[in-house]
Write a structure and sequence with these properties.
Elements: E1 5-6, H1 8-14, E2 20-23, H2 33-41, E3 47-53, H3 55-62, E4 66-74, H4 83-90, E5 95-98, H5 101-112, E6 117-120, H6 128-131, E7 136-139, E8 147-152, E9 156-166, E10 172-173, H7 182-187, E11 189-199, H8 202-208, E12 223-226, H9 244-252, H10 257-267, H11 272-286
Parallel strand pairs: 1-12, 2-3, 2-9, 3-4, 4-5, 9-11, 11-12
Antiparallel strand pairs: 6-8, 7-8, 9-10
Helix pairs in contact: 1-2, 2-3, 3-4
């Protein structure tokens, strides 16, 4: 089996400006933040993100990396709306496609099945079609003749996800309470890239949890990066909880340009090791 072990910066180097990228996790939970930070360090731009969004969207918007965001929500969980995303939208910097969460799911399922669309009741009767006039409906060919929304496939050039454990061949495992839709993101993508808390031998995956917890198999992944605390400051249960104090500091950095620049200089001006060291130093000062 092929050895897919690499680094976050090498994964970012495989991406191209203008790509459509799906980012796994959910809100401020188990986001591949080390890979997001690698994108921040790169020259990538004009990206389209598909995400059940959290600080992945906010950070990339604040850094001017995004052209468009396709989303069901962009939330930090304990803070209802990511303030950097809100600020970017208020400045008119982002093109958006705001869908019902179920519509995003249907779009990813259509892409994973290589279908042009999937019919869904999600979004029917809401304002979503009015906000997205390109959407179409279809009528059931059976006796019910129900009118359904035809959710177009959300095809991805690449998917970025973060899981608890992985082997060096690209099989990856979640150990928390929810798989989210990381497997669907990778199935909908041309390339799947995984970061993980720890790379382990393949046999150890099944000692850590049931076979169902091995969410990704190697056929859907192209590279693996070991990034301890790589989901910080989002949570990665059971390895660690969300860093609420740091998240509040991140949110406060959206107050104005000077606040963002100070946050960026303290935490995002170096590599991943420098980021983790800066987080530890800030925590020691706070304690």
């Amino acid at each position: 089996m092929r050895d897919k072990l690499t680094t976050p910066d090498e994964i970012a180097g495989r991406l191209r400006s203008g790509m459509t990228i799906g980012i796994g996790g959910w809100g401020s939970r188990r986001k591949p933040m080390a890979l997001v930070r690698a994108i921040l360090r790169s020259d990538l731009r004009d990206l389209t993100l598909v995400s059940y969004g959290g600080p992945d969207v906010g950070l990339l918007a604040a850094a001017g990396k995004l052209r468009k965001v396709v989303f069901g929500f962009v939330s930090l969980d304990s803070i209802p709306l990511d303030p950097h995303f809100r600020a970017a939208r208020q400045r008119g910097e982002l093109e958006v496609a705001e869908y019902d969460e179920g519509m995003v799911l249907a779009g990813l399922r259509a892409a994973a099945a290589r279908l042009p669309f999937l019919p869904t009741r999600a979004g029917v009767g809401s304002d979503v079609p009015a906000l997205n006039p390109e959407l179409r409906t279809v009528r059931s060919p059976y006796d019910d003749h129900e009118e359904l929304l035809a959710m177009p496939a959300l095809r991805l050039d690449a998917a970025l996800v973060h899981l608890n454990r992985a082997d060096r061949h690209g099989n990856a495992q979640y150990l928390g309470p929810d798989p989210y839709f990381d497997d669907l993101m990778c199935a909908a993508a041309e390339r799947g890239y995984v970061s993980c808390e720890r790379v382990v031998p393949t046999a150890e995956l099944l000692r850590a949890g049931p076979v169902q917890s091995v969410l990704l198999n190697r056929t859907h992944t192209d590279a693996v990066a070991e990034t301890p605390r790589g989901a910080h400051f989002t949570g990665c249960a059971p390895d660690y909880d969300r860093d609420e104090a740091f998240q509040r500091r991140y949110a406060a950095s959206a107050a104005d340009a000077a606040s963002w620049e100070a946050f960026r200089a303290e935490f995002l001006s170096g590599d991943e090791q420098a980021y983790q060291a800066a987080v530890d130093a800030a925590r020691e000062v706070a304690e």
